[in-house]
Fold this sequence. Notes:
Blueprint: H1 2-10, H2 12-29, E1 42-51, H3 57-72, E2 78-86, E3 89-96, H4 102-114, E4 127-132, E5 136-144, H5 148-164, E6 169-173, E7 178-184, H6 186-191, H7 196-206, E8 209-217, E9 220-227, H8 233-237, E10 240-243, E11 249-251, H9 252-255, E12 256-262, E13 270-271, E14 274-282, H10 289-306, E15 311-316, H11 320-348, H12 351-374, H13 381-410, H14 415-441
Antiparallel strand pairs: 1-3, 1-4, 2-3, 5-14, 5-15, 6-14, 7-12, 8-9, 10-11, 13-14
Helix pairs in contact: 1-14, 2-12, 11-12, 11-13, 12-13, 13-14
Amino acid sequence: MNGLIAWFIHNRVAANMLMFIIVAAGIMLIPETKKEILPNVSLDKISITAAYPGASPTEVEEAVCMPLERAITGLQGIKDFHTAAKEQLCIISMNIEDGIDGADLLDKIKGNVGAISSFPSTVARPITKITEAPNNIASLVIAGNADYATLKTIAGNVRDELINLGVSRVRIRSNRSYEISIEVSEEELQRYNMSLASVAQAIRRNSMKASGGSVSTSGGSISVEAVGQAYNAEDFRNLILLAQPDGGHVSLGDISTIRDGLTETNQQTFFDGKPAIMLNIGQGDRENLLDLAQTLHEYAEKKNQQLTEGITVSIDGDTAKYFERRIELLVDNAISGLALVFITLLLFMTLRLSLWVSLGIPVAFLGGFVILYLSGGSINMISTFALLIVLGIVVDDAIIVGENIHRHHTLGSKGEKGAIIGVQEISKPVIFAVLTTAVSFTPMFFLPG
């Protein structure tokens, strides 16, 4: 260490070049470093979601959940799992054992799930993914004196427009989903000698998409698909339930009343006293918090000019402003710390020595941002808090080193000799003072997640 210090002091050009490289790299990489309110944290969980349209919880459990459970049982790395069989949906949540690579385990689970061949034809492809902590940065609120269906339609359009603008994570937070209700007349069932179970089976059989394989031709291979999925009330009205001997038929609309609307609920959302619906905006892996917030504000301002009178788009819970305040606090403290060091040194030392010692503070911080970028880190509330802690250490050490160099100059060791002796004499205490602070945080590296 002493030899390295002496070499840099004797070779001023190399030292200055290194300093300029650090400063230039830091200035260039700060805008490129990802900015977020909190870093994405893996919850050490993997989830499997599979939809089975029209199925009851019991049917979902037998046809979907049980095959999925058999596929993942025995895989090394799964601590435990929990299965929920709901109407039309199966959800399995797994906890990953400590020390297991989640990405490798995810690939194994996907392979086992993909090999299942016993699913009914109407079961959607299971979605397997690693569960991450929610990283919502704001909510977009659509409010106004309008019915819920209108607000939900606008919310769907807003979601699509935001995705087209590059906002990758937009989720409508709604307590009422779209629903098609079918009320079957008991008299009509008796008239045509049908049961409610047979009607349900006919709906499930006739409203579906099915692959018919492929046909090889001279021009290539042609995929064959039977498309019969019903999407709205009119489609369901036209479903054929029963063919009569005289060539006539009975459709679902003949024996039932079909309504296309929203589910009923006793929960309502209001914003500023008006009915509202909210969209949660999340930050993607490659998105910048400040750029994303600016996009949202510009979009909300433009959208408000397009909507009918009485309906507004507002931004609620914008976390970017907290991030900006933390950055302002960091910059203000860095500037005040730099000024404090320079003034303090100037009271007791020469102008040249005070200037160069003070410049070490911004150089050290810019070097820290270079390391942050190269290590794949981000500028967030935690990393800026760490920089605020380190700021005090850097300021203290700068004063100590500068004062010791000045002391040796006054004792007669002028120029490079005094600088070498002054730095070497204080280097070990300064290094170990910093290391003791670093060591106190090292247990965090061993925490899971």
